[in-house]
Amino acid sequence: MKIIYSSIRLFLVVLLGTVLSVSCSDDESGCGTPEITRVSTAQNRTETIAGGNMGDFIIIQGHDLCGVQSLLINDVEVDLRQAFITPAEITLQIPRVVPQEVSNRITLTTGGGSVTAPLEVSVPPLVVYGLAANEYALAGETVVVKGANFDLYAVTPEAGKVTFGGVVADVLYSSYDSVVTVVPPGIPDGPADIVVSGVYGGGTAIFPYRDNRTLLISSDPWWGWWGGDYVASGDTPPDISGNYIHVKREIGSWAWTEVVGGPNNVDGSTTKNIPADAMQNPANYLFKFEVNTLKPYSSNQIKITLGEDNDASTYLWPHYDTHGAWRTVSIPLNEIVKDPKANPDGYFIRFLFHGDGTLDADIAFDNVRVVPKP
């Protein structure tokens, strides 16, 4: 009997050794050497893709994709907790992280080995659209710089950088599309650039601050348009760039009250400086101005005209209230210019109060301009 028991015990030892040997030679899930046969989108599994954008969902297809130890896209590690893994597919989202080293490859490592596959990831640029409220904000004002991909480029209070005309401003808070900062003192007079910089290479974006490109009405000086009596300056409201248009009066229902206006032959007219492309392709441009409603613009109607003559299409500006602060208004130019046509001699321009309801007006305008869309 001892011989039989000894034989059985020897057999079990050998069997256990064989099992341990197999476990050590393969990964913990029993998979062999991994193989990637295709990378596809989540929407179309049958078509191989060469690249994708950050945030896209993709599927890595193949064999023996189990027991995953690490997954890199370029040198950025994918969070495996956020991936759905089977032996034949791995579904994941391309991380929103800018790589330090670009290999344009996926690198997959399992207990059975490593494998790579080509994948070129498009890194979106850092973009600045401008200041959220007032593009002519004064020094000391807290402002929000709007844009995109601030998170990708680490535009943070610790690592990011914002300058106004070369003068550094502190980053107070940042998110994907916003940076909160304070306009610093000491900015050079005149137009300047807002420059936002991140940690990673190429992470710089520029937007004009106090943009005076194609300035049509600035009141510095008044150049002869109708309504010269409305040109004002002072502390109520505080000026943001010299003189401004200030309408402080009662405007009767349907009273015809032209505040700013004039044809292209008015002495000193700046409308001839509008680029021909803006009037031919107005969808690519914006009509901007700063406004301050010390009392709400809540009745009557402001009509804005820009075109060949005073019969040109007119834009009805909706009621608006800035609560006593200067704010930038941005209107797609094609909502004003309905008949695209260039005229090197300039254009008719007008701000007109004409609508239903009596308005106790106390409203200021400045820096009327046409600029390209960012």
Automatic annotation (TrEMBL):
<dbReference type="Pfam" id="PF01833">
    <property type="entry name" value="TIG"/>
</dbReference>
<keyword id="KW-0732">Signal</keyword>
<dbReference type="InterPro" id="IPR013783">
    <property type="entry name" value="Ig-like_fold"/>
</dbReference>
<protein>
    <submittedName>
        <fullName>IPT/TIG domain-containing protein</fullName>
    </submittedName>
</protein>
<dbReference type="InterPro" id="IPR040475">
    <property type="entry name" value="SGBP_B_XBD"/>
</dbReference>
<feature type="signal peptide">
    <location>
        <begin position="1"/>
        <end position="25"/>
    </location>
</feature>
<dbReference type="InterPro" id="IPR002909">
    <property type="entry name" value="IPT_dom"/>
</dbReference>
<feature type="domain" description="Surface glycan-binding protein B xyloglucan binding">
    <location>
        <begin position="209"/>
        <end position="372"/>
    </location>
</feature>
<dbReference type="Pfam" id="PF18329">
    <property type="entry name" value="SGBP_B_XBD"/>
</dbReference>
<feature type="domain" description="IPT/TIG">
    <location>
        <begin position="140"/>
        <end position="197"/>
    </location>
</feature>
<dbReference type="InterPro" id="IPR014756">
    <property type="entry name" value="Ig_E-set"/>
</dbReference>
<dbReference type="GO" id="GO:0030247">
    <property type="term" value="F:polysaccharide binding"/>
</dbReference>
